[in-house]
């Protein structure tokens, strides 16, 4: 069992930066693929990025490439999402997710555990 708690969301101006954190409980954290997803008002939840259990591989949605960076610290049971050059269209609730899967995936159904989400609002 893995429990996930996101933090770090807030209000930021366009062009600014935020770093989201996702703290996990459970000794199996280090063996999970971790993903970040987001859901904007009136839209479906979408993939943002994912990181392998050892941090060696990452995958990003096109909207995140070059601006967002995922990292993890298994000693702290925490995964991060560094977001730079934020745009108003990045406004959404951001969720982290953990999957007991052998490879990176963008498919939400393959993630077993989800956090409650943290709101990110980017003003123009």
Question: Can you give keywords for this protein?
Answer:
globular, 124 residues, seven-stranded mixed β-sheet
Notes on the structure:
There is one protein chain. This protein is mainly β and 124 residues long. Helices cover 0% and strands 49% of the residues. It contains no helices and 11 strands. Strands 2, 4, 5, 6, 9, 10 and 11 form a 7-stranded mixed β-sheet that branches. It has a 4-stranded antiparallel β-sheet with strand order 1-3-8-7, with no helix packed on it. The chain is globular. The termini are far apart. The mean pLDDT is 95.
Give the mean pLDDT.
95
Gross morphology is globular
- Which regions have little confidence, pLDDT < 50, spanning 5+ residues? none
Series of secondary-structure elements, N-terminal to C-terminal: EEEEEEEEEEE
The oligomerization state is single chain
Radius of gyration: 13 Å
Tally of strands: 11
Number of helices: 0
Instruction: State the major sheet.
Output: 7 strands, mixed
Task: Detail the topology: elements first, then pairings.
Elements: E1 3-7, E2 10-13, E3 18-25, E4 33-39, E5 46-51, E6 58-60, E7 68-73, E8 78-83, E9 92-99, E10 113-114, E11 118-123
